[in-house]
Amino acid sequence: MIKTEIKKFRLFLKDFISRLKKEGEETSEAYRILVRYAKGEVVSKEDGDKLKTQMVDVIKILGLGIPYILIPGSTLLLALLVSIARKYKIDILPSSFKDI
Length: 100
Known about the structure:
mainly alpha
């Protein structure tokens, strides 16, 4: 029983870290697009869409992360918030975490 739970937790942690890495890569790509735009270079519509999507994801991460850091015991609050948002079909998770 405990071994099964440990295995599930390790799989969850591995998946979570993988998603964080993906989100980091997407943020780095958005930064490169933003730098090109700031330099006055032409940015394709596709790159513009990527930048918009990632900026929304960053805002979502900040919106979830700041209370998580500031409020003691917010781990449970965060899980509750995500489940309530799902119930009302509100999208509060970054794109890398959509299918959790």
